[in-house]
Structure formats: C-alpha cells, structure tokens
Design brief:
By secondary structure, this protein is mainly alpha-helical. It has helices spanning 3-8, 19-37, 43-51, 53-61.
Length: 63
C-alpha cells in the first residue's frame, strides 16, 4: 500500500514539522537506543524500548 493510499483512507495525515520537533524526535530516539543497550534490564524490556521508537514521533512531537 502506498503512502498516497494510506492518506486517502485516512490512516496517514500530512504534517508540517520544524527543526525543534525533529530535534525532540532525535533526542527521544537516542534515549531509547541507550536504554536498549543496558544489559542490566531484561531482553524483553530492551526490545520494548527499541520498539517504542515507532511511536516516539507521536509522543515527542505532541508536547
């Protein structure tokens, strides 16, 4: 399915961004990756932190 098709059916919305939002996203991604590198936490938690990157854009830019 193309991005255009996703937009047509309402599953994707166009969003204008700025340097501040991109910076917040990058900071969040760096924190998540650093968390995932911690060997003192379980593998499941480490994988969950990496998986959280897929939603980082929403949470980082919604504040």
């Amino acid at each position: 399915m193309s991005l255009q098709n996703l937009a047509k059916i309402g599953l994707l919305v166009e969003h204008d961004t700025d340097k501040r939002q991109v910076g917040k996203l990058m900071e969040a991604a760096e924190r998540f990756v650093e968390d995932a590198r911690q060997e003192t936490i379980s593998l499941e938690t480490r994988l969950d932190r990496v998986a959280s990157l897929t939603t980082a854009g929403h949470s980082a830019t919604s504040s």
